[in-house]
């Protein structure tokens, strides 16, 4: 019962991770640059994401421009696009597989099949967390290195946006859920290896046949 409750908790974490992963992939505020200038009324907030760049004015106007050209983008943005999409796909597969393999569901057949499905879903969550953690870390490194570069003007420097933090948190949720699912299945299999089922030995009802004659019968 405790294992089923733990799996359900991991499934909730995985759901939060999937929604956060998708949200971080689509949000345009991976890096933010606030240009106040001499007048706060004309303040401009520039946001750059994986798929579009947006500008928000203090007057309430908001405009976005899609990034149509892939080859013109920096390498870290191209890699972030690919890995974040893979993370979303793997996490979605993990949700489907663990739904079948969880103990609190009636899907998946016998306990061994459900255990294997649960382990496979946990591996998908771990891979999705890694794929989500790599681009956010790389993207943050590029932002920090550009911010500390003295040759870059202040107007071209950015800070990490909300999408980066959402990606970090989602990757943590997915990694935690994957470890819990894999560990719960591994403990069950390990218990079966340590304590194998007892084999009952029944005494043979057949008596050994006399291969020779008893000498006392002839005395």
UniProtKB/TrEMBL annotation:
Family annotation (InterPro entries): Claudin, Claudin_CS, PMP22/EMP/MP20/Claudin
One Pfam family hit: PMP22_Claudin
Leader sequence residues: 1-20
Transmembrane segments: 84-105, 117-139, 163-186
Keywords: Cell junction, Cell membrane, Membrane, Signal, Tight junction, Transmembrane, Transmembrane helix
Membrane topology: Multi-pass membrane protein
Subcellular location: Cell junction, Tight junction; Cell membrane
Molecular function as annotated in GO: structural molecule activity
GO CC terms of this entry: bicellular tight junction; plasma membrane
Domain of life: Eukaryota
Coiled coil as UniProt keyword: no
Main location: other
Function in brief: Claudins function as major constituents of the tight junction complexes that regulate the permeability of epithelia.
Family of the protein in this entry: Belongs to the claudin family.
Name the UniProt record assigns to this protein: Claudin
Organism of origin: Jacana jacana
Top-level taxonomy: Eukaryota, Metazoa, Chordata, Craniata, Vertebrata
